[in-house]
Amino acid sequence: MNGSIAHKSATSARASAFNGTTLVSQRRNVARQTSRGLAVRVRAGNTNAQKAEYIWFDGLEGQKDIMFNEMRSKTKVMQKPLPAGSTDFPMWSFDGSSTGQAEGDDSDCLLRPVFSCPDPIRGDNHVLVLCEVLTPNGDPHPTNTRDRLAKILDKEINDEEPLYGFEQEYTMLGSDGRVFGWPEGGYPAPQGPFYCGAGNEAVYGRPLAEAHLDACIKAGIQVSGINAEVMPGQWEYQVGPVGPLELGDSVMVSRWLLHRLGEDMGIVCTFDPKPVKGDWNGTGAHTNFSTKSMRNEGGVDAINDAVEKLSKTHDKHITQYGLGNEQRLTGLHETCDIGTFRSGVADRGASIRIPRQVEIEGKGYLEDRRPSANVDPYTVAFLLLETIFSKA
Description:
Layout: H1 2-15, H2 20-31, E1 50-57, E2 71-78, E3 92-95, E4 108-118, E5 127-134, H3 145-152, H4 155-159, E6 163-173, H5 206-219, E7 223-228, E8 234-242, H6 244-265, E9 268-270, E10 287-290, H7 292-295, H8 300-312, H9 314-318, E11 343-345, E12 352-354, H10 356-361, E13 366-368, H11 377-388
Parallel strand pairs: 1-5, 11-12
Antiparallel strand pairs: 1-2, 3-4, 4-5, 6-8, 6-9, 6-10, 7-8, 10-13, 12-13
Helix pairs in contact: 3-11, 5-6, 6-11
């Protein structure tokens, strides 16, 4: 373990310096020099110019090598800044033939801003701008899963005020593809000491997890916590409680932040549902869901009705709950077999878990334990609404 401990320590030293002010200051200092140490003279220009990082996803999560993800971004400089939270940022475009979203002879895809927040990495007045992708004629691109979620939000659904809590698990990898902190040519101790652990031998990668939490908070994303997971090098952060569109927007921006911070620390984060084969936990995205009827007195009846409907659409959900999920949903490691639907109170081996407190109080929420870590959050939100609000 000595080699991995040394690597962890070096990474910790680099990562622990993260905070909005310090990081921005460090980058400004670096920007004043070239790689050869030559001074760069920059004439003062519009010092109020704003960097807007346009973010989108290519829809290929889980279809690339484990070291790659679906998040894309590029920077637009705004000479007339707009406030964080605005969606009035101008539309832009990108080369879809280079992201697998268009052919080369008609490659321009459009970016329409739908969400913005403060940029916690660059600081100052800079912003992150999440965009949905449109085709050249302005129609939703096939990878634009946000659009169908927005369209299903009718008065009946909105009146029920649906809320989600999304448990995003991920696994940290080193540049060599091994799980971060694992010894060369071997494995750490068997699972057991690592979940919510503390100490150098029990926890791998905390500096990145903490930096990511700080960044999400500074960006205004409604995160509710983090924890080290069962497999060493595996972590989880929670987003929510939030509404349907806010769920998707928050998760996508938080994923981009995770990958972006990983660049600075030499860590790759993967949402692969089973990054290590064998007796190791997979990586999921348990999704907690409730409506106003479920949260009100006697809400357990609405919860039971929802579970009944979910039992009838199991196959439809499974086909859209993440690629490679069959490797994770085996009936082992706190999962239900992918071909089986089962619900239960406090049962982490069920498809749908009803928390013990919900049973006691007779109201609350349900937990869908089937989505894999690489699932599209807009798709999860859509499917739960479509099924639970169906008239069948």
